[in-house]
């Protein structure tokens, strides 16, 4: 009887964590895993985020992590002045009319480490971050799959 209950429990699919799950797109041949939201403690948190990890199911190694986040520190952290001091310096670009920074640290021997990173500055305190291990998709193209207006609106308050 206990074995039957355990087996049945193992077969019940679990839902994605609540929060902003609907904001994260599905990506072709990638497995998608939404993480639970992270919210600063307190009555009126100003720091919170949620991430989704995508793993390529095809013949190459590629893992993407997309994070949407709000933090007052982003205003300074991703300012034009701070980006000029970054080593290595990121490429400055525009994605859907938003300022973005792309770090490209491609090293064939570091597939287990983040080798590309894109930060799209949605507002002074709101960002979209895409980190890539491996190779394959172009990060600006992945970022364009998210509805920036919906993400900005969602980031007005912490995920539930």
Task: Describe this entry's structure for a reader.
It contains five helices and eight strands. The longest helix has 10 residues. Strands 1, 2, 3, 4, 5, 6, 7 and 8 form an eight-stranded antiparallel β-sheet that branches. The termini are far apart. Helices cover 20% and strands 34% of the residues. The N terminus is likely disordered. It is globular. It is α+β, with helices and mostly antiparallel strands and 160 residues long.
Please summarize what this structure is:
The chain is an alpha+beta fold and 160 residues long. The protein has 5 helices and 8 strands, in the order αββββααββββαα.
Distance linking N and C termini: 37 Å
β-strand number: 8
List the helices and strands in order: HEEEEHHEEEEHH
Largest sheet properties: 8 strands, antiparallel
User: How many individual helices?
Assistant: 5
The fraction of residues in strands falls at 25-35%
The average pLDDT is 86
Oligomeric state of this protein = single chain
What is the share of helical residues?
A: 10-25%
Shape: globular
Radius of gyration over all CA atoms, rounded: 18 Å
- Which structural class is indicated by helix and strand composition? alpha+beta
Low-confidence stretches: 1-16
């Amino acid at each position: 009887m206990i074995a039957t209950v355990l087996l049945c429990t193992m077969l019940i699919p679990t839902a994605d964590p609540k929060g902003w799950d609907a904001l994260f797109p599905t990506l072709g041949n990638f497995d998608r895993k939404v993480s639970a939201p992270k919210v600063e403690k307190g009555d009126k948190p100003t720091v919170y985020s949620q991430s989704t990890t995508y793993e390529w199911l095809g013949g190459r190694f590629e893992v993407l992590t997309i994070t949407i986040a709000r933090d007052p520190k982003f205003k300074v952290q991703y300012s034009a002045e701070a980006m000029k001091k970054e080593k290595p310096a990121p490429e400055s670009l525009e994605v859907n009319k938003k300022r973005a920074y792309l770090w490209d640290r491609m090293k064939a021997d570091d597939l287990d480490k983040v080798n590309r990173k894109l930060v799209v500055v949605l507002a002074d305190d709101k960002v979209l971050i895409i980190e890539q291990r491996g190779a394959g998709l172009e990060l600006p193209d992945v970022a364009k799959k998210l509805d920036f207006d919906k993400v900005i609106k969602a980031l007005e308050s912490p995920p539930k």
